[in-house]
Amino acid sequence: MPSARCGLIVALTVFAGSAPGCRATPAAEARPSALPSASANPAGASTSKAKQRKVRTELYFGLGRNGGGEISAAEWTTFLDQEVTPLFPAGFTVVDAYGQWKNAAGVVVRERSKILILLHDEDAASAGNLEAVRNAYKRRFGQESVIRSNQAADVDF
Question: For strand 52-62 and strand 93-102, is the pairing parallel, antiparallel, or unpaired?
């Protein structure tokens, strides 16, 4: 059974490999036990479309630079505008985070990071676009790794 430390590592870390003995918790385990019913819909509010089967992908981007310093907010925004938005124009969410990971030299690195959350179809185009985003970030900012985590998701808009 994974330890609480593993959960913290998986949830908050940007790292180049995997943490031994850790596993990600499926999204279903993190859902609240009771969801609002249709009758809880306020008067006059429009009802949503039927649930859609999507993939929820989280990409973890470290903001530290190899030679010291940090990727700026302006650089991050430019990256989103130039690399992410054209490939995922329907939208995404960015979460500020802090994590740690062990680099290829075996040094533990602690840094601020960003988690990019995307809901998309499970298809070759989306998979290719995700890899394009990861590779663009690594190339642009000299990063060793960008973590990708996928989960099945039932989405209701």
Answer: unpaired
Structure tokens at 154: 């039932």
Spatial neighbors of 128 by CB under 8 A, at least 6 apart, are: none
Q: Which residues pair with 149 in a beta bridge?
A: 58
75 sits in the region (left: phi over 0; alpha: psi -120 to 50; else beta) called alpha
pLDDT digits 0-9 by tens, 2-26: 433 333 333 333 333 333 333 333 3
Structure tokens at 37: 């019913």
* Residue 33 domain flag: no
**Alpha-carbon Rg for the chain in angstroms:** 18
The kind and range of the H/E element at 24 are none
**pLDDT (tens digit, 9 = 90+) per residue, 88-119?**
999 999 999 999 988 888 999 899 999 999 99
Number of domains in the chain: 1
